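Incident log, structure service

09:12 report received: a user says their structure output differs between two submissions of the same chain.
09:20 pulled the input from the user's history:
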Amino acid sequence: MPIRSHVPHFFDPQPQLKTMRNLIRIFALAVLVTTGCDSGDVVEQDVAQVQVRLELENLPPLQDGFAYQAWVQVGFVSHASDRFNVTENGSFVNDAGQFIQNALVFEVDISEATEVFVTIEDKRDSDDQPSGTVVLAGDVSGSTATLSTNHERALGVSFEGQSGTFMLLNWASGASTDETSGLWFIDGTRAAPTAGLSLPTLPEGWVYEGWMDQGGTLVSTGAFRENDSHDLARQYSNTDTPSFPGEDFLENAPEGVSFPLDPSGGTVRVTVEPFPDDTVAPYGIFILSGSVPASPSSATPYPLQTEVAAPSGTATLF
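09:34 re-ran on a clean worker, output below:
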Protein backbone atom coordinates (compact mmCIF):
# COMPACT_ATOMS: atom_id res chain seq x y z
CA MET A 1 0.00 0.00 0.00
CA PRO A 2 1.53 3.38 -0.86
CA ILE A 3 2.15 5.82 1.97
CA ARG A 4 0.18 8.99 1.46
CA SER A 5 1.46 12.39 2.39
CA HIS A 6 -1.96 13.33 3.80
CA VAL A 7 -3.94 10.77 5.82
CA PRO A 8 -7.75 11.12 6.05
CA HIS A 9 -9.03 11.53 9.60
CA PHE A 10 -10.82 8.16 9.49
CA PHE A 11 -7.69 6.28 8.40
CA ASP A 12 -5.79 4.31 11.11
CA PRO A 13 -2.03 4.80 10.46
CA GLN A 14 -0.72 2.39 13.10
CA PRO A 15 -0.24 -0.71 10.85
CA GLN A 16 1.62 1.38 8.29
CA LEU A 17 3.86 3.01 10.93
CA LYS A 18 4.65 -0.39 12.37
CA THR A 19 5.59 -1.67 8.90
CA MET A 20 7.80 1.36 8.34
CA ARG A 21 9.64 0.85 11.64
CA ASN A 22 10.27 -2.81 10.76
CA LEU A 23 11.67 -1.79 7.39
CA ILE A 24 14.03 0.68 9.09
CA ARG A 25 15.27 -2.05 11.49
CA ILE A 26 15.86 -4.45 8.57
CA PHE A 27 17.75 -1.78 6.64
CA ALA A 28 19.95 -0.94 9.66
CA LEU A 29 20.75 -4.64 10.18
CA ALA A 30 21.64 -4.99 6.50
CA VAL A 31 24.07 -2.06 6.78
CA LEU A 32 25.81 -3.68 9.76
CA VAL A 33 26.13 -7.01 7.98
CA THR A 34 27.37 -5.59 4.70
CA THR A 35 29.96 -3.35 6.40
CA GLY A 36 31.30 -6.24 8.48
CA CYS A 37 30.95 -4.29 11.79
CA ASP A 38 29.30 -5.40 14.98
CA SER A 39 26.93 -3.18 16.89
CA GLY A 40 29.60 -2.28 19.43
CA ASP A 41 31.60 -0.52 16.69
CA VAL A 42 28.86 1.79 15.55
CA VAL A 43 26.55 2.29 18.52
CA GLU A 44 27.96 4.43 21.32
CA GLN A 45 26.07 5.08 24.49
CA ASP A 46 26.67 8.51 25.99
CA VAL A 47 27.85 8.45 29.58
CA ALA A 48 25.82 10.90 31.62
CA GLN A 49 27.71 13.64 33.40
CA VAL A 50 27.79 12.92 37.12
CA GLN A 51 28.46 15.68 39.60
CA VAL A 52 29.95 15.70 43.08
CA ARG A 53 28.90 18.60 45.28
CA LEU A 54 31.54 19.55 47.86
CA GLU A 55 30.56 21.38 51.04
CA LEU A 56 33.89 22.22 52.70
CA GLU A 57 34.78 24.07 55.88
CA ASN A 58 38.09 25.67 56.92
CA LEU A 59 39.81 24.75 53.66
CA PRO A 60 42.63 27.31 53.20
CA PRO A 61 43.20 29.10 49.88
CA LEU A 62 46.33 27.86 48.10
CA GLN A 63 49.05 30.15 46.77
CA ASP A 64 51.77 30.12 44.10
CA GLY A 65 49.84 28.15 41.47
CA PHE A 66 48.98 25.19 43.69
CA ALA A 67 45.42 23.87 43.42
CA TYR A 68 42.98 21.38 44.88
CA GLN A 69 41.55 18.45 42.95
CA ALA A 70 38.68 16.15 43.86
CA TRP A 71 38.92 12.42 43.13
CA VAL A 72 36.42 9.58 43.12
CA GLN A 73 37.63 6.03 43.63
CA VAL A 74 35.87 3.38 41.51
CA GLY A 75 37.45 -0.04 41.89
CA PHE A 76 41.18 0.40 41.35
CA VAL A 77 40.82 3.62 39.34
CA SER A 78 40.86 7.21 40.65
CA HIS A 79 38.83 9.65 38.52
CA ALA A 80 39.69 13.36 38.79
CA SER A 81 37.70 16.58 38.66
CA ASP A 82 39.10 19.78 37.22
CA ARG A 83 41.52 21.67 39.45
CA PHE A 84 40.03 24.30 41.75
CA ASN A 85 40.92 26.67 44.55
CA VAL A 86 38.94 28.49 47.23
CA THR A 87 38.75 32.10 48.34
CA GLU A 88 39.04 33.34 51.92
CA ASN A 89 35.27 33.03 52.33
CA GLY A 90 35.18 29.52 50.86
CA SER A 91 33.93 30.26 47.33
CA PHE A 92 35.24 27.97 44.59
CA VAL A 93 37.40 29.39 41.78
CA ASN A 94 39.22 27.84 38.83
CA ASP A 95 42.91 28.17 37.94
CA ALA A 96 42.17 31.52 36.28
CA GLY A 97 40.57 32.87 39.46
CA GLN A 98 37.03 32.82 38.03
CA PHE A 99 34.19 31.84 40.33
CA ILE A 100 32.77 28.36 39.70
CA GLN A 101 30.13 26.13 41.25
CA ASN A 102 31.02 23.73 44.06
CA ALA A 103 29.42 20.93 42.00
CA LEU A 104 32.25 19.28 40.06
CA VAL A 105 31.56 17.25 36.90
CA PHE A 106 32.84 13.71 36.29
CA GLU A 107 32.15 12.51 32.75
CA VAL A 108 32.40 8.85 33.75
CA ASP A 109 30.17 6.39 35.54
CA ILE A 110 30.93 6.81 39.25
CA SER A 111 27.81 5.10 40.54
CA GLU A 112 30.01 2.41 42.14
CA ALA A 113 32.29 4.93 43.89
CA THR A 114 33.68 3.82 47.25
CA GLU A 115 35.68 6.93 48.27
CA VAL A 116 35.88 10.65 47.60
CA PHE A 117 39.09 12.52 48.41
CA VAL A 118 40.66 15.94 47.85
CA THR A 119 44.35 16.47 47.07
CA ILE A 120 46.74 19.41 46.83
CA GLU A 121 48.34 19.41 43.39
CA ASP A 122 51.66 21.08 42.64
CA LYS A 123 51.59 23.80 39.98
CA ARG A 124 53.89 21.61 37.87
CA ASP A 125 51.69 18.51 38.19
CA SER A 126 50.03 17.62 34.88
CA ASP A 127 49.52 13.85 35.15
CA ASP A 128 46.27 11.97 35.77
CA GLN A 129 47.29 10.48 39.12
CA PRO A 130 46.53 11.98 42.53
CA SER A 131 49.39 13.51 44.48
CA GLY A 132 50.42 12.09 47.83
CA THR A 133 49.11 15.18 49.63
CA VAL A 134 45.54 14.11 50.44
CA VAL A 135 43.79 16.73 52.57
CA LEU A 136 40.34 15.20 52.99
CA ALA A 137 38.85 11.79 52.34
CA GLY A 138 35.73 9.83 53.14
CA ASP A 139 33.94 6.56 52.37
CA VAL A 140 30.81 6.78 50.22
CA SER A 141 27.63 5.65 51.95
CA GLY A 142 24.60 5.82 49.70
CA SER A 143 25.40 8.98 47.77
CA THR A 144 27.28 10.87 50.50
CA ALA A 145 30.79 10.85 51.96
CA THR A 146 31.83 12.61 55.17
CA LEU A 147 35.27 14.10 54.50
CA SER A 148 37.94 14.47 57.19
CA THR A 149 41.70 14.74 57.58
CA ASN A 150 41.88 11.68 59.83
CA HIS A 151 40.62 9.26 57.16
CA GLU A 152 43.25 6.61 56.40
CA ARG A 153 43.72 7.93 52.86
CA ALA A 154 44.47 11.42 54.22
CA LEU A 155 46.54 12.04 57.37
CA GLY A 156 45.15 8.94 59.05
CA VAL A 157 45.28 10.35 62.60
CA SER A 158 43.05 12.67 64.62
CA PHE A 159 45.75 14.11 66.97
CA GLU A 160 43.21 14.17 69.80
CA GLY A 161 44.93 13.55 73.11
CA GLN A 162 48.38 14.55 71.87
CA SER A 163 50.63 16.62 74.11
CA GLY A 164 54.26 17.70 74.27
CA THR A 165 56.90 19.94 75.75
CA PHE A 166 58.99 22.87 74.55
CA MET A 167 61.90 24.86 75.97
CA LEU A 168 63.14 28.38 75.39
CA LEU A 169 66.93 28.45 75.10
CA ASN A 170 69.66 29.63 72.82
CA TRP A 171 72.30 27.12 71.76
CA ALA A 172 74.45 29.60 69.87
CA SER A 173 74.96 32.56 72.17
CA GLY A 174 76.23 32.66 75.72
CA ALA A 175 74.84 36.14 76.33
CA SER A 176 72.41 36.31 79.22
CA THR A 177 70.33 38.91 77.40
CA ASP A 178 69.07 36.48 74.77
CA GLU A 179 69.11 33.12 76.52
CA THR A 180 65.39 32.59 75.76
CA SER A 181 65.62 33.61 72.09
CA GLY A 182 65.32 30.06 70.80
CA LEU A 183 62.44 27.57 70.65
CA TRP A 184 63.14 23.83 70.89
CA PHE A 185 60.77 20.90 71.15
CA ILE A 186 62.69 19.12 73.88
CA ASP A 187 62.28 17.93 77.46
CA GLY A 188 64.82 17.01 80.14
CA THR A 189 67.70 19.41 80.63
CA ARG A 190 70.00 21.45 78.44
CA ALA A 191 72.84 19.04 79.22
CA ALA A 192 70.71 15.95 78.52
CA PRO A 193 67.79 16.87 76.24
CA THR A 194 65.14 14.33 75.23
CA ALA A 195 62.34 14.51 72.68
CA GLY A 196 59.55 16.85 73.70
CA LEU A 197 57.13 15.45 71.11
CA SER A 198 55.72 12.01 70.40
CA LEU A 199 53.77 12.81 67.24
CA PRO A 200 52.86 9.98 64.85
CA THR A 201 54.66 9.58 61.53
CA LEU A 202 52.87 11.44 58.76
CA PRO A 203 52.13 9.95 55.32
CA GLU A 204 53.81 11.07 52.11
CA GLY A 205 53.11 14.69 51.23
CA TRP A 206 52.98 16.06 54.79
CA VAL A 207 55.38 17.41 57.43
CA TYR A 208 55.13 19.05 60.84
CA GLU A 209 56.22 22.63 61.52
CA GLY A 210 56.83 24.60 64.71
CA TRP A 211 55.95 28.27 65.22
CA MET A 212 56.44 31.10 67.66
CA ASP A 213 53.33 33.28 67.57
CA GLN A 214 53.89 36.83 68.78
CA GLY A 215 50.60 38.70 68.60
CA GLY A 216 49.62 37.09 65.31
CA THR A 217 53.10 37.26 63.75
CA LEU A 218 54.32 33.70 63.30
CA VAL A 219 58.00 32.83 63.01
CA SER A 220 58.79 29.28 61.85
CA THR A 221 61.22 26.95 63.59
CA GLY A 222 61.34 24.82 60.42
CA ALA A 223 59.48 21.82 59.07
CA PHE A 224 60.26 18.39 60.50
CA ARG A 225 59.34 14.73 60.10
CA GLU A 226 60.83 13.15 63.22
CA ASN A 227 60.44 13.92 66.91
CA ASP A 228 64.09 13.24 67.66
CA SER A 229 66.06 14.56 64.67
CA HIS A 230 66.93 17.89 63.07
CA ASP A 231 64.24 19.79 61.22
CA LEU A 232 64.57 20.60 57.53
CA ALA A 233 65.83 24.19 57.82
CA ARG A 234 68.31 26.43 59.62
CA GLN A 235 66.78 29.77 58.76
CA TYR A 236 67.87 32.00 61.62
CA SER A 237 71.18 30.58 62.85
CA ASN A 238 74.02 28.35 61.69
CA THR A 239 74.80 26.89 65.07
CA ASP A 240 75.56 23.24 65.69
CA THR A 241 72.39 22.27 67.50
CA PRO A 242 71.00 19.10 69.08
CA SER A 243 69.12 16.52 67.02
CA PHE A 244 65.63 17.82 67.75
CA PRO A 245 63.24 20.18 65.95
CA GLY A 246 63.76 23.82 66.90
CA GLU A 247 65.46 27.11 66.06
CA ASP A 248 67.60 29.87 67.52
CA PHE A 249 66.18 33.26 66.53
CA LEU A 250 69.38 35.26 66.04
CA GLU A 251 69.86 36.42 62.43
CA ASN A 252 68.00 36.99 59.13
CA ALA A 253 64.88 38.17 60.94
CA PRO A 254 61.75 38.23 58.75
CA GLU A 255 60.14 41.57 58.00
CA GLY A 256 58.42 43.10 61.02
CA VAL A 257 60.30 40.93 63.56
CA SER A 258 63.29 41.89 65.71
CA PHE A 259 66.04 39.43 66.71
CA PRO A 260 67.11 38.26 69.22
CA LEU A 261 63.47 37.33 69.60
CA ASP A 262 61.72 38.05 72.89
CA PRO A 263 59.13 35.24 73.27
CA SER A 264 57.51 36.67 76.43
CA GLY A 265 53.74 36.20 76.45
CA GLY A 266 53.74 34.49 73.06
CA THR A 267 52.18 31.24 71.92
CA VAL A 268 53.99 28.16 70.60
CA ARG A 269 52.16 26.17 67.92
CA VAL A 270 52.69 22.96 65.95
CA THR A 271 51.01 22.55 62.59
CA VAL A 272 50.78 20.00 59.78
CA GLU A 273 51.96 21.37 56.43
CA PRO A 274 51.78 20.12 52.84
CA PHE A 275 55.12 19.10 51.33
CA PRO A 276 55.99 20.69 49.00
CA ASP A 277 54.40 23.77 50.56
CA ASP A 278 52.58 26.51 48.70
CA THR A 279 53.49 29.31 51.13
CA VAL A 280 55.71 30.16 54.11
CA ALA A 281 52.59 30.79 56.22
CA PRO A 282 50.84 28.01 58.18
CA TYR A 283 48.53 25.88 56.03
CA GLY A 284 45.64 25.61 58.44
CA ILE A 285 45.94 22.28 60.28
CA PHE A 286 46.85 23.18 63.89
CA ILE A 287 47.42 20.36 66.36
CA LEU A 288 49.31 21.63 69.46
CA SER A 289 49.70 24.92 71.30
CA GLY A 290 51.32 26.18 74.47
CA SER A 291 51.63 29.52 76.25
CA VAL A 292 54.88 31.33 77.01
CA PRO A 293 54.82 33.07 80.44
CA ALA A 294 55.19 36.85 80.62
CA SER A 295 58.59 36.31 82.27
CA PRO A 296 59.82 32.98 80.87
CA SER A 297 62.84 31.07 82.12
CA SER A 298 65.52 29.53 79.95
CA ALA A 299 65.76 25.73 79.64
CA THR A 300 62.49 25.23 81.53
CA PRO A 301 59.99 22.69 80.14
CA TYR A 302 56.62 24.22 79.20
CA PRO A 303 53.60 22.11 78.19
CA LEU A 304 51.92 21.78 74.81
CA GLN A 305 48.27 20.73 74.67
CA THR A 306 45.97 19.49 71.93
CA GLU A 307 44.35 22.29 69.93
CA VAL A 308 43.12 20.71 66.73
CA ALA A 309 41.76 22.85 63.89
CA ALA A 310 41.47 21.26 60.46
CA PRO A 311 39.36 21.28 57.27
CA SER A 312 36.28 19.05 57.00
CA GLY A 313 33.28 18.63 54.75
CA THR A 314 30.88 16.42 52.85
CA ALA A 315 30.66 15.18 49.26
CA THR A 316 27.34 14.34 47.60
CA LEU A 317 27.08 12.39 44.34
CA PHE A 318 24.12 13.28 42.12
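09:41 both user submissions now match this output. Likely a transient worker issue. Closing.
09:42 reviewer note: DSSP finds two helices and 19 strands in the chain. Helices lie at 14-35, 39-42.
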